[in-house]
Amino acid sequence: MNGLYALKPWYADRLSGVRGALARRGVSPDTLTAAGAVSATGAAAALALLPTPLAALPVALLLAARLAFANLDGALARDTGRTTRRGALLNELGDRAADLAMLAGFVPLAPLWLVAVAALAATLPSWIALAGAAAGAPRHNGGPVGKTERCLLVVVAAASGWWVPVLLLIAAGSVVTAAFRFGRLWRELAA
Question: Which pLDDT tens digit goes with each residue over 131-186?
């Protein structure tokens, strides 16, 4: 069960021309990581400040940029031989910051406790994947509500004004995704 993550190879292929142009210009992968966090922050601002459904287009575009940057940073580092442990650390921190920034856009729109629960739950799948990698398992991504699905749900909220239902879906779906990844890792690490 990989969810929309199954489309990553297709999406990466669509971005190969952009990756090549960035490599020729000497753009740093770390710059792309930072751009992803900035894009997510912009999406949060649009969500919080623009009326429904006018917020949907800027939120969708900024979150599409966030996902593109998340795909491009590591691929560019690999393509140009600039993978580093610091870059890997920055990538993980940038992804978590982008997720939290994106969900911060709900603060003026929904109960604070629910935004906090959704934000904490949204980080669980990544922490499980990172813990599994630290234990020697391959890094697992995907699941019913991964990064891409969370972005899509935020766009739905921006278009519909369904703040509470979307936050509940993000929270519950993220917990299910974390449990899915944990179960898979648990089985693999037992072998």
Answer: 999 999 998 888 899 999 999 999 999 999 999 999 999 999 999 999 999 999 99
Q: State how far the Cα of 58 lies from the Cα of 189, in Å rounded to an integer.
A: 42
What is the rounded CA–CA span in Å between residue 99 and residue 150? 8
Residue 136 is given by DSSP the state: T
Q: What is the CA radius of gyration of the chain?
A: 17
What secondary structure letter does DSSP report for 4? G
The vertex-26 CA angle with 22 and 30, nearest 5°, equals 80
Burial of 18 (C-beta count, 10 Å sphere; 0-12/13-18/19+) = middle
Distance in angstroms (rounded) separating the CA atoms of residues 93 and 101? 12
Q: How far, in Å, are 24, 128, 129 from residue 140 at the CA level?
A: 31, 9, 5
Contacts of 52 (CB under 8 A, 6+ apart): 158, 159, 160, 161
Note if the pTM is more than 0.70: yes
Identify the H or E element spanning 161: none
56-83 in b/e burial notation, b at 16+ Cβ within 10 A?
A: bebbbebbebbbbbbbbbbbbbebbeee
Tell me the pLDDT tens digit for each residue of 101-139. 999 999 999 999 999 999 999 999 999 999 999 999 998
How many angstroms separate the CA atoms of 101 and 37, rounded? 7
